[in-house]
């Protein structure tokens, strides 16, 4: 802050004061703005001045903070230690500190949109608009981050396999042996503890990587969609319901794919390791267990297809509901407009009929008077 020019510091101070004033206006109740006869204007003015000074002091005490998720070290990212300062600010200053949080440049929506847009343009040039895939563009844009997440997940699965399948089995065999050595048992226990600690550490680190990738991917996809919609002059045959589905369901699908995708890549690794271990340990009976494992995966595949079918059906029904509500609102506006014009027409007709009736009555009266006079 001290290295900034005076103009920038003054501008930042003015922005913080404006935000503080906005918070003050939202926090003051309606009774505080009403002038009571007993208190007088002077008391009310002093109360507002004191509140403004207090808010200015609070605003001056708050300092801008960055969300350092991408800059944190491995230990800080795995333990989420980088969130400590933000949590402390929330506890100390309340939600006011959220106005001063900012992302790093590589985590902002603009940077991620530019990154995905460049990858998407490359996908269009190489494969054409008919065969271009957003999934390939997303993988190409975040290849390094996804590879890091996959490597961490493979390391996590390795520690899990070594701890549960190898070290734990050796420990159980050591316990069942009547002539076991205490020193060897201690080594097994310490090895199991270290293995579990490393597994927990890498597992938390993997989730941290995946959530950060999911946040970036969702921001990039939604930002790219916003840019596309802003360039369009009309939606043509698209409906509002389809856009709502894109921003809600499809955006969440992108996030879930970026979060859970690396775990799918690590599945075959642990499957092959378990297959070899069971065949060496149990022989042919190990293949029976592997066959059961594969059968369960086939059942899960059918269940997943059913869930996907019902999810698409729900999305379709949501689109129909939004389209129907839009049509109803449009028709209500049309009925209202036509109703107002119909009222005008009815009034004009009534006036014309009344005038014609008056004219007829006058003519009849004149005729009667003339007839009476003539007789």
TrEMBL record:
The UniProt record lists the ABC transmembrane type-1 domain at 149-339
* Transmembrane region(s): 146-172, 184-208, 257-278, 284-303, 343-374
Q: Which SUPFAM superfamilies match?
A: ABC transporter transmembrane region
| Pfam families recorded | ABC_membrane
User: GO: which molecular function terms?
Assistant: ABC-type transporter activity; ATP binding
Q: Which Gene3D superfamilies match?
A: ABC transporter type 1, transmembrane domain (1.20.1560.10)
**Gene Ontology cellular-component annotations:** membrane
What's in the keyword line of the UniProt record? ATP-binding, Membrane, Nucleotide-binding, Transmembrane, Transmembrane helix, Transport
Q: Which domain of life is it from?
A: Eukaryota
Q: Check the record and name the PROSITE patterns matching this protein.
A: ABC_TM1F
Q: Which PANTHER family match?
A: ATP-BINDING CASSETTE SUB-FAMILY C, MULTIDRUG RESISTANCE-ASSOCIATED PROTEIN 5
Record's protein name: Multidrug resistance-associated protein 5
State the species of origin.
Elysia marginata
